[in-house]
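Before a colleague's protein record goes any further, I have to sign it off. What it holds is a sequence and that sequence's fold in token form. My question to you is simply how this chain folds and whether the tokens agree. Thanks in advance; the entry in question is below:
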Amino acid sequence: MKVVFSSHAVDKMDMYGVDRKEVEAVVSRGMKWKEEGTEKMHARMAGLEAVFICKDGMVFVITVYPAGD
């Protein structure tokens, strides 16, 4: 699976001190659910949450933040 990060997601990752591998792990192995009424998915694992879209075999990460915020 190819993972692409938005500039916003990269900024948030820098702000929270999270690297790409951590986010990829959240997306691939975390607990997932679909945001109602949209194509957005959420994944949560180890205190981190990612919002992303899956399309054409790719994952586009929109944003990343500490779980619970």
About this structure: The chain has one domain: 2-66. The longest strand covers residues 58-66.
